[in-house]
Amino acid sequence: MRRLPVLLLALVPAVVHAQRAPVTSGQRPYVSVDAPVVALTHARVVDGTGAAAREDQTIVLRDGLIAASGPTTQVPIPAGATVIDLAGHTVTPGFVGLHEHTYFSQGSRTTQMTTSGPLAYLALGLTTIRTGGSMFPYQELNMQRAVQRGDLPGPRMHITGPYLNGTAGVGSMNRGLASPAEARRVVAYWAEEGATWLKLQGNISRAIAAAVIDEAHKHRMQVTGHLCSLSFADAAAIGIDALEHGFITNSAYVPGKQPDVCPAENMRIQADVDGKSAEVQASIRDLVAKKVALTSTLAVYETFMADRAKLNPRAMELLAPDTRREVEVTHASLGKEGLIVPTRLLEKMMEWERDFVRAGGLLGAGVDPWGTGMLPGFGDLRNYELLVEAGFPPPEAIRIMSLNGATILREQAQRGSIEPKKVADLVVIRGNPVATPSDIYNVVTVFRDGVGYDSAKLLAAAKGLVGVR
Ligand SMILES: [Zn+2]
């Protein structure tokens, strides 16, 4: 009688473990580790749950899943395993990036990062992304399918379809929605086309936004927004699932704000709002109570700060020559035109995110690539440094970039942390980003579904392609 459970235990893994897809010819040139059983030994592990870093750990990967994780002295290495000694390295979960884009807008042009986007995201440790609005929704969909097929390496993707706005003028790439009925029709269409999230943008009424959200939920999609006609309270009241950017985009604080209308001074006035006021703190509690998740995008706002923004030379190598020139011109004119983010506003955004998490809010992070020099992957890693600067302990910052993202995507049972039975999505980083945050850029190998990709080879393949393809 006592033997039966043992037999069952022996049988179950054989079923669960048939996960690892064969490496395709499109992935092969970038793959550095391809074995059914891999043991990563002597690594420092930050597991994504917020727990402190643990030294000298071993992680066993089997058929695309994490089979075991624990102290090297206690985790047996299976016979036949490919053993990789990671002394001096840190392993984190694969990053789950929200508010990612697969297009790049700089100067006068917007282009799709069909090839460069997936390569760069994966190279910098992003194994799962959710886009935050698409300018070229069919190119994005086709790119997602190409990555799924293995035509090129990249992260798994949740895509959002076209930006949904209340109006869309000549030249706009948004989908303008004139009525709730039209909104429902468009949402149902994108559900069938393959979007799993939708992004509300700009000037949209509560009635139309509510129709988008209700219809999306019927199709098991989620909705996020970068709004100005709706305050955070307006959006939370109609059931939005997430909001982008945080404090800076809450139009509630603009004097004379009219319902359903974007105020002129949004995203500047917030610099003079007291983040510790009863009104702001009540707004945070309202979002937490209504389970509205937030995406932190501190890194992109920093690129609008003349006194702080720096172009990352490694990131700039991804740009095509003419695109690079335009980015450099934009960077040189920082503080003279366009959005200007004063230091005190960035500090308020940081403090607001700390308060949101302290109040129980679910915070994820994303890059929001932009022509100010914010590139896929690189911006996600800059977020890590800024979250630490904001006061999050490093393991908590890693959690925001991994398990929290997976939780927002409702995939926390499958990925987002280093725990047995989860998908083997891992980032191997040379050095110790817990002690030295800038070490986060030293990505060596990225495991997706248990296959290890060489970060340097992925980046080399993306060189000079942003702005072209
Ligand atoms: Zn965006």
Topology overview:
Blueprint: H1 3-16, E1 31-33, E2 37-45, E3 54-62, E4 65-71, E5 82-85, E6 89-93, E7 95-100, E8 103-106, E9 109-112, H2 116-123, E10 126-131, H3 137-149, E11 156-158, E12 164-165, E13 175-176, H4 180-193, E14 197-202, H5 206-218, E15 222-227, H6 232-237, E16 242-244, H7 278-289, E17 293-296, H8 298-302, H9 313-316, H10 321-332, H11 343-358, E18 363-365, H12 378-389, H13 394-401, H14 403-408, E19 426-430, E20 443-448, E21 451-454, H15 455-462
Parallel strand pairs: 2-5, 2-6, 7-10, 10-11, 12-13, 14-15, 15-16, 16-17, 17-18
Antiparallel strand pairs: 1-21, 2-3, 3-4, 6-19, 8-9, 19-20, 20-21
Helix pairs in contact: 2-15, 4-5, 12-13
The structure holds zinc ion.
| CATH-assigned fold name of the largest domain | TIM Barrel
Distance between the termini: 62 Å
- Poorly predicted parts: 1-18
- As a percent range, the share of helical residues equals 25-40%
* Main beta sheet: 9 strands, mixed
Number of strands: 21
Strand content: 15-25%
Number of helices: 15
Oligomer: single chain
Architecture per CATH nomenclature, i.e. the level-2 architecture of the largest domain: Alpha-Beta Barrel
Bound ligands, each once: zinc ion
Return the structural class. Answer: alpha/beta
Q: What is the total number of structural domains?
A: 2
> Tell me, what is the CATH class of the largest domain?
Alpha Beta
Q: State Rg.
A: 22 Å
Give the CATH superfamily of the largest domain: Metal-dependent hydrolases
Taking all residues together, what is the mean pLDDT?
94
Overall geometry comes to globular
